[in-house]
Amino acid sequence: MKNSLKTRLLIYFLISMIIIVFSMSFVLINSLKLQEIADRRFEDEQFLQELQSYLIDIQLPLKSYLTSYSSSSLAKLLFLIETLNESVPVIRPITADNSVLIKREIYFLIDSYLIKLNQIIEEKRGRKVLQYIASYEKLNSLYVYISSRIDDFSLFGFRTQLEEYRSFIELFRRIQIYGLLQILLATAFAFSILMQTINNIASPMYQLSLMAGKLSGGSFDIPDIHFNSVDEVNQVTEAFNNMKHNIHHNIEELKKQKEMEQQIMTEKVRNLKMEQLLKRMELYTMQAQMNPHFLFNTINTGVQLAIVEDADRTAEYMENLAALFRYNIKEKQFFVSLRHEMEGLESYYNILKIRFPKTLNLVLNVQNDLLDRFNCPAMIIQPLVENSVLHAFSKKDGIGTIIVAVRFEDPLLLISVSDDGVGIPPEIISELLTPHTHDYKLSSRVMGLENVIQRCYFFYPDQKDIIDIRSNHDSGTEIIIKIHTEVTPCIRL
Fold this sequence. Notes:
The protein is of the alpha+beta class and 493 residues long. It folds into two domains: 5-195, de novo design (two linked rop proteins) (Up-down Bundle), CATH 1.20.1440.210; 289-484, Histidine kinase-like ATPase, C-terminal domain (Heat Shock Protein 90, 2-Layer Sandwich). The chain has twelve helices and seven strands. It has helices at 5-41, 43-68, 71-87, 98-125, 129-216, 231-288, 290-308, 311-330, 338-355, 382-392, 426-432, 447-459; strands at 335-337, 360-366, 375-377, 400-409, 412-419, 467-472, 476-484. A five-stranded mixed β-sheet has the order 2-4-5-7-6, with helices on one face. It has a two-stranded antiparallel ribbon with strand order 1-3. A hairpin with a 3-residue loop joins strand 6 (467-472) and strand 7. The longest helix is centred in the middle third of the chain and has 88 residues, at 129-216. It is elongated. The two termini are 73 Å apart. 19% of the residues are buried.
């Protein structure tokens, strides 16, 4: 700790404070001594001024007593007389000093004043009006004379002490100059120590900054630096040297790791390409799953209808069926315009109207301005409608209603298919909404719905709420697809 910056600064501070306190104490002690000498010089004059103030204070109660014979005025007058009498010195030496002789004269005059004052009080008590009036005039003349003698003594004292006062002022100035010089010397000493300490710190820091600049330029072969400074700077210097060696070692290690990472990245890119290819194959497989199941049902219905109905209705049915087949076979893109998707859905609607003319009510609620404005994944609406037709009304009597609605709530394109069928059990909904690969098998009755859900997860892997299923027992099901129009799908061909 002896060579630490904290210890040095503490020692320098204590030395500087001791010098400054000593200088201030020297000035203070000498100033107090000079003040004491000045007080002794003016002690006699202050005493006489005090006696004169007593004489002044006596005048008012004296007049009040003589004019009104007030008992309170008499009590105050007697108190002031006693105070003045006790204040006048009894010992009055005789010397050749004029100031002492003047004070002696004033003391005797005050004695005469007090005697005359007591005489007036007795005459007032005896109701000797003429006598105490005459005595009051003499007392007043004596008061004026005593005041003039006190003023003369003050003037004499001022003249005799004027030269001493000049010497006193000169001495006080010298003391102030000595104190100022001591403070300046202490300040200069503290400043020199401070500059030395700053230099011991700043010079190594400057050398360290130069070394840091060379290191930032990639030069690690520069020699180590060493200083004989405070412990903190020495420790920073040593740490800096160690850091230089560690950085150089780490850079060599990083170069080796970079080469290895380059090889790993090349392998990762190769794997990503393979994974991308597998995903595309998986999507094609999922889309291919849609055709056989639907094809079997529609052709079977067409054959039955051709047997029992006239050729016109059969022709209409087969015409819509052909249009729908053409759409399914022709469409190989993952994303199509919303209008294209709705045209395929309308062909499927026409088939369902012929197939279920009295038991199925189909409602389209789509804003026409949205058809050419947005795209959506191919074949996502028709499988949802087919799922409702096959499963929602299988155990329900009466007319079933399916509503397809498309609306835009910036930035989401909302596609919903709802029915008033029997609903989907919660455990089936939970399994349907679980992301999995195409080889995962659920019940075949929900295969179309599962296909749509998994394709949505593929296209929007970061949007966990891309699809929502709301269903209650015997009160219907609503499936909502939420396409974020500002998000680019992860696979787009």
